[in-house]
Amino acid sequence: MINQVTTGIDEVLLNFSPTSLQVLNAVLAVVMFSIAIDLKPADFRRLVQAPKPLLTGLFSQFIVLPALTFCLVLLTAPRPSIALGLILVAACPGGNISNFITHRAGGNAALSVSLTAFATVAAIVLTPLNIAFWGNLYGPTRDILRATSIDPVSVAITVGLMLVLPLCLGVLLNLRRPDITSRLRTPLQYLSMGIFVAFVVLALAANWALFLQFAGAVAALVLAHNALALAAGYATASIAGLSGFDRRAVMIETGIQNSGLGLILIFGFFSGLGGMAVVAAFWGVWHAVTGLALAGVLSRHKLPH
Questions:
Q1: Are the C-beta atoms of residues 82 and 218 closer than 8 Å to each other?
Q2: pLDDT in tens, the chain (305 residues)
């Protein structure tokens, strides 16, 4: 039965209307805006003057995690659509709830917000590049990429419009009208958490039976992948000699992926391919669970700033 389920997952296309996709695009833009209003140009200048934590976090997200994900795929040899789903999630920037979780965990929230911002900008180039590079290295996923004829430029444009535009608008508003952003900041943080949950529910609502049918086929892999991401972030930050305060931020940024962006790319460029969509949706639920649980544990052990 398991073999039949995992084989069928490569052929299943989940249903997702163009209108729903547009709604999700708008939702993700709002979430990105809520992150951006915490930033000022001075934050970027400080990180340029002391770039080591930022560069370590970006290296962990865009180099270490995709490489380890490829090793996981080689080791476990999952169905092609599941493998490509793992690769795609690993290629996405940090997730929208990582800043909230880092703050709760007693990590460097300012570094977390800046990492999300820089990773979002870098994702315009690095997300499609990582999908194409690692996906083409593995034969079964290479076949999917060839069949879909994914255009990295189109992916870059999609990422740019959804993430970078609201990021720039949020920073600009914070610079020009800090009185408005100070009132919006806390409500938007909680709203973004709610939006994130609604985001995943919306993606699954029309496909609940299929999700239940195939979730078991990806559960163990997603759990292992998320644990690998968190461990990779912590190890990379430790090897780089970062403080414990900064290590927590890098670990959480690496372990909380923007699976919402992943879902949009899957429905926009891969026609909602079953294995990919179920992986991204399961990630969207699971990384919130592990992130909040980890924050609860770490918050009991305060670190010097």
A1: yes
A2: 334 344 466 655 556 555 666 666 777 777 778 777 877 777 677 777 778 999 999 999 999 999 999 999 999 999 898 999 999 999 998 876 787 788 888 888 878 888 887 888 888 889 989 999 999 999 899 988 887 766 677 777 777 777 778 888 888 888 888 888 888 877 876 776 676 667 667 666 666 666 677 777 788 899 999 999 999 999 999 999 999 889 999 999 999 988 778 887 887 788 777 778 888 888 877 888 898 899 889 888 777 65
Distance between CA atoms of residues 183 and 241, nearest Å: 37
Sign of CA dihedral 165, 21, 195, 123: negative
Residue ranges and CATH numbers for the domains of the chain are 2-296 (1.20.1530.20)
Interacting residues of 123 by C-beta distance below 8 A, sequence separation 6+: 92, 93, 159, 163, 261
